[in-house]
Structures are given as C-alpha cells and as structure tokens.
Predict the 3D structure of the following.
Amino acid sequence: MEWLLERAPGLRWVTALRAPKVKQSVPTHQVLAGKVLIDCVLFQAPLLNLYFAVTGLLEGLTPVEIYEKTRASFHRAWALCVLVWAPVQAINLHLVPAILHPTVVAAVSMGWQTTLSILNHYHDHGSPRRVGGRAAGVVRHAGKEEQTELEQLRGLADELANENQLLRQQLARMQAARAAAQQQAAEQAAQRAGQQAAVMAKRRGSGGRPASGSATAG
C-alpha cells in the first residue's frame, strides 16, 4: 500500500482513519454500530431522496409528481437499504482495509442501483404478479364481453331470420294476390270480349233482317 500512497498522496487521510489511536473507553462494537447507524441515517436516506429526485427530473415529472413518487417509494426503498447496507457496511468497516472501502461500496452499489431501478419500474408499471393478475382479469373480462356480444349477435341473427321468414311469407302472399288479380283481370277481359262479340253479332243480325223483309214484300 506504500507505493499507492507515494503515487496518490491524497489517500493518506484514508489510512489515517485506521491509524493506531489511544485506547478508548467505548467498546469497538458500539463504535461500529454508530458508524453503521450514521451511514444508514445521514447518508443513505438523503441519497435515496436525491436518487428519486434526479430520476424524476430525467423522466420529465413535475415537482409534485416527484414528491408523490418519492413519498410512495421511499420507505420501502429505505427499509431495503437498511437490510442491504447495514451488514455490508458492518463487514466493510470492521474487516476490510480502509484503502479498499470504496471498492467494496462500488461493487455493492452496482447491485443496489439495479434494485432501485427495479423498484422504480414496479412503482410505475406494477410487479409481474400484479401485472399478470391484471392481465388475467382483463382477459377474463374480455372473454365475458365477447361471450355477451356473441349472445347478442345470436339473438340479432334469430330476429333477422324471423323477419326474413315474415318477409318471405308477405312476398308469397303478394305474389299470390297478384296472380289472382291477373287471373281475375284476364277473366274480366275475356268476359268483356265475349260481351262485345255478342253485341257485334246482334248488331249484324239486326242489320240484315230489314233488308230481307223488304225483299219479301216486293
């Protein structure tokens, strides 16, 4: 580690944190618990608020929407943060050399940022189980609607079939009435023709009789 400190003098303050100190009356585990508590309360909580604020701005949300989103997701995210970072920082601060503390934090932060992104996605779109439940409900609802529409279409088809049958019956009656009218008109025309023929025959007969009578008289 000496060669690293020679090339990066700015890291000497990190080693100073682990330098031998005067023996303290406070037990080591209490000091460690205090460090972890300060990290979770004074660092992780503001960082979570900053994370939600920055992601909200990048998504184009208004300040009110960012506030509502942060209020809805902060407590769950912070509880998960305590569950993840409390043991990580306890191990990091107690067992890992001070020069490697940033490396450990950076490695864990990759998974932690992924977890925050998943939580953010669940907040906007719901969890897969909830989305699947909603999708199943939508499918069931759509199935019921399709069944209702199918029943309505069947009823409409039956009504149309009945109306078609009635129209066919009316058309048949109209055709029968038309045929009867045509037959009656033909009979009337034949009757008139017969009458006219009889009248013509009478006229011819009455026109010939006077001529024969005069001839007899002469």
In short: The chain has two domains: 2-17+24-125, 128-203.
